[in-house]
Amino acid sequence: MIAKLLGNLKLIWKVLNRPSVHYSLGFLTLGGFVAGVIFWGGFNTALSVSNTEAFCISCHEMENNVYEELKTTIHFTNRSGVRATCPDCHVPHNWTDKIARKMQASKEVWGKVFGTINTREKFEAKRRHLAENEWNRLKANDSLECRNCHNFDYMDFTRQSKRASQMHSTSLASGEKTCIDCHKGIAHELPDMAGVEGF
Questions:
Q1: What domain count does the chain have?
Q2: How far apart (Å, rounded) are the C-alpha atoms in residues 63 and 86?
Q3: Is residue 198 part of a domain?
Q4: Which residues of the chain are modeled with pLDDT < 70?
Q5: Closest by Cα among 173, 138, 175 to 157
Q6: Is 95 a member of any domain?
Q7: Is 39 part of a structural domain of the chain?
Q8: What is the extent of the structural domain holding 126?
Q9: pLDDT for res 197
Q10: Cβ density class 97-130: b for 16+ within 10 Å, e for less
Q11: Model pTM score
């Protein structure tokens, strides 16, 4: 059996290794280029579609839970009309970081398939675990998604409250803390934080 498999692999390698009998090298190169462009276009289109709020709330788990909570925050409606959507806060904007996050999020598909949080009760039971995963991710990347919109270099401390100005100009500037350390629950309800220091 192994000998037959090795024989088949050698035959495939021999076919791939010899020059083309029917097509020129230029045609094969051009065909490969066109196929690559089509693949890349399809990949980027799928990536763009999966990076929209409509895609995020297409499952009722998100629409009926966290999206409803987002609607009551300043990130949804505010005086300037600038609104953060799900991917703004949960997907990095840089391409490599975005791909890494998408690969990480692919395991969340299993949760959808197996109904891990398909009811409000199940969602509430897992809320703290889900929130802590997201907080840890943001802590690890220095709140990269927050910094896509909130640039520390352009903050006007004089227009902030005394406490915010003090925290932003000391802890945040020194790198001791990152946005998510102080801004948990900024867009969604906090889970039961009993037993957590500082709450």
A1: 1
A2: 11
A3: no
A4: 16, 19-21, 197-199
A5: 173
A6: yes
A7: no
A8: 57-189
A9: 67
A10: eeeebeeeeeeeeebeeeeebeeeeebeeebeeb
A11: 0.74
